[in-house]
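User: Study the shape:
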Amino acid sequence: MKFSNKYLPVILLFLAFLVGAFFRFYKLGETPVGLYVDEASLGYNAYSVYKTGLDEYGKWLPVMFRSFSTFQSPIYSYLLIPVIHFLDLSIFSVRLPSAFFGVLSIPLLYLFVKQLVIPAKAGIYSSDSKLKYFPLVAAMFLAISPWHINYSRTAYEANIALFFLLLGSLFLFHALKRSWFFLPAALSFVISMMAYRAEIIIVPALLVVFVLRYSGALISEFKQRLTPILISLVLSFIIFLPTLQIMGTPGFRARSSALSIFATSGQRPWGANEGKGLVHELQNNHQVLATREFLSLYSSYLSPRYMFSLGDSGPRLPYAGMGTFFVWQFPLYLIGLYFLIKERDLIDFKYFVFTLLLISPIPAALTRDPYSTLRSLPLVVPQILIISFGLVKPWEILPAFSSKLKFSVVALLVIFSSVRMFISIFYFNDYFNSKFWNYGWETVVKEIPNLNPQLPIVVDSSRGDSYILMLFFLKYDPALYQRENFEVSASDYYTSLTRSDTKKLGNITVKSIVWGPDTDEAEQYLVADYLAMSEVQIDAHNLTIIKEIPFPDGKVALRILKTNPKPK
């Protein structure tokens, strides 16, 4: 066997890993430019626990972290603690776990696909492996996936959850041959559920299908499997128990209550309030309307129109000019679906792909946001696999084309997509979307030492939780902040959702600026965005501009001003 053929799969896998690592780590602390408040909250709470053992609200080692009006899953913040220990608190360090697990997901997907589609007796290097390049194609397509790259470059818990979901699935199929793999599978699934709430629905559903599918194999060796399964279940229950204990609290339910299509009355269709009678009530009651909305939202996640054209409508989520997948992958998706439906040999692989394909949209479809790529992130796996299958399967049955030509076409598509991705991420995204990433607050903090320390500073919070950005970039002493700001007692941490509108950070007060008292009556500095402090208002209140911080497109993002009250 030629050296090039023997080691080609290893070389290609390493190349996919390098490409994926580049897109996830290059300028990680600079792009996206700025820092979203959820990222700042994850980072500062980890910093606070690292320094004091308490989060920003004074809660010791929370099961879930209180974040503004809702709660964040704990895994990401706890993973950040050792990162902060070695790298300090920064944009780069906060995004590092997501990028790290995003890169590891590439070889992990390769291993998982290889396990399901390539017979062990054939081996990866064997020409008998008809789909020997399939795992490599899947890994490369994940490496250049706009969807996966987006969430790997930002501090989103969903990316961590996806990694452990995939890891748990890998161990689960290994457990069919070696029962003790049930233990790492169970632990991986528990971490996945604790990392992001969507997995609390996805993981149990996936396990139910697995048990039904492999019930015969599980029962046939029940005695040998019983001990590993029981130990796995007990340990998983113990680890997940603290989360179970707070599931009924208002804090745990806060986000789902605010977003669920079943928990909110929503907007009724036009004319729905006009009708009367039993038939009208049966057709237009809230549960029926919510079910119809669920089915509509669910179908959008399987729609090629959203996958390859519209994408996610969230301002921070799509890269400029790009959908969830590349347009050229659309025919591959259709081809992959066709061949996978007809496939009769890869039964295990087929069951997994279609199970995850149908389960993954459920948590997202239960919320009001249309086509949320964050809540449906596990869907990237089956859809990538279908697209990859659509490339490799015709490759297998169309031998007329030379291998060099096939590789050349794929290489050109990957290179073209990578170049386009590079331009979109590192140029267009920062230019067009910087205002959605709270750009400029780091510059504000750097300017504070140049201000008169005798004068107080008022930071406007009327359009967002700017206090957390100040805490983050100042690396404000968590113990001092906890003493200066009391919001909720430890006993009411998960039950009381009340919030304070004013935050104190030494001589800095973060609140909504009140025109008159804050602008005319006291000598102080004001920090606000371009909407809160327009040129007309600056002139009308005789304010002095100390510094203007522009967006990358040149427009004003934030202003630091000084008041000039008239002598009394």
Observations:
- DSSP finds 24 helices and eight strands in the chain.
- The two ends are 93 Å apart (CA to CA).
- The longest strand covers residues 544-550.
